[in-house]
Amino acid sequence: MELHLIIEGGRDLSEQVYSQIIQAIRSGRLTRGQQLPPTRLLAQQLGISRKPVADAYSRLTYDRILVAHTGRGTFVGELGGAGARRVEGAQLASRDTLEKWMGWDTPFRQPFAHGRSEYEFIGGTPSPAHFPQEEWRRCILHGLRQDSVDRGRYAPTEGVLELREAIVRHAGYARGVRCAARQVVVTNGAQQSLDLLGRILLEPGSVVAVEDPGYPIARSLFKSQGATVACVPVDREGIVPSKIPDNARLIYVTPAHQFPLGMPMSLGRKTALLARALEIGAIIVEDDYDSEFRYEGRPQDSLQSIDTHGLVVFLSSLSKVMLPELRIGYVVVPESILPALCIAKHLSDWHTASMTQHALAKFIDDGHLVKHIRRGHSIYASRREALLRGFATHLAPWFEVVPSTAGFHMAAFAHKYVDIDLLIRLGRRAGVGLYSLEGFYFEAQPRQGLFLGFGSIDTLDIDTAISRVRGILLQMDCGAEVLEVSD
What we know:
With 487 residues, this protein is of the alpha/beta class. The protein has three domains: 64 residues, Arc Repressor Mutant, subunit A (Orthogonal Bundle), CATH 1.10.10; 125 residues, Aspartate Aminotransferase, domain 1, CATH 3.90.1150.10; 238 residues, Aspartate Aminotransferase, domain 2, CATH 3.40.640.10. An eight-stranded mixed sheet has the order 5-12-11-10-9-6-7-8, sandwiched between helices. A three-stranded antiparallel sheet has the order 1-3-2. Strand 7 and strand 8 form a beta hairpin. Helix 1 packs across helix 3 and helix 13 packs across helix 15.
């Protein structure tokens, strides 16, 4: 890589090299400890003789701006790299538009803004310690080898065929999804899936129906695309179809494990939801984010599997099951919207990284994903039992858990008044990371309660954490004002 210097004319060459290196350091383009090219190489790149470059290096070294190490090279010294230059901001024509983006709600962008607690109940985070790293490493090496076959070429926008075929088998096996490989589009996580669906289905002012309480990121994403978001209440069976507006184009739901409350949508409610979508011509987005982990009752069909009119888009995030940093998910789409979605994906980022896709296809086909889910199921089941036991005994005077049969988070409603904000603050100071349900409500009256993820806490730590929470609640019952002042 060439060092970007511009030589003009043939006079004062050494001075030009000297002053431009100084300028590069002051602007932050060259930083402290960064290595410079050898004098011979830089002279060749600039099209001048070596002597002016060597003279400039000597002056810079004498001034302690550069440091020369025998056998290693020349580096920017301690006095260099004071940081990037300050640029005076221009009055941008788009400043009002940019200002609007600062107002969007992004609650999960910094999940540990207050620091990670010793006993952490944050939701949506799987257990990384139990991920099969060695098996994944071998699959990554396989992906690198496969990638070398088509090196220098773009991959298919909808995804590598081997992965889409593997997803068809996995989704059919685990969730009863019925589709062909051509209906599967691989994305950079469920978040991109939602973004692409909004692009092709919505226009400014279009109505989107979302659950309330529900996933705040989806709500904000659709609003950022100019849509009008209609918040539809949920009850014990899921979203209430009769409350969905007649002009809704898109209905976003989490039927297998309602986010954030956790209850599954009943079969009768699924049927009613499909009928309502057919009546108004809306597309249903079924976000199936963590239902591979099921603990009670009989398996339930996905909404997509009982759709007979091509109204349901099934989306899932393999990042949630495996590791969040993978950022890989997929959508199963009806034929009617497939071409538009592929065009939007192509315009957005062309395709998801092919090496990761090849690796994931092998990970699925070799049985590692199923084994990982089974192992995770056992781990999460024990944590879930410990949490349910703690709420049924130690925390029963204050909270009642919302019935849930899947996933690795649950919700608990307070059945008497509890100052949730105070409980969270005191819990954090006691080493317990607790989270409120309030932020998941939008128009509906928020219910007091806790959102409890158990992907990041060990089973043996749950009893200790519950005991600490119980101690805080007992003190709060005795006088929250004293606690607040003394804290």
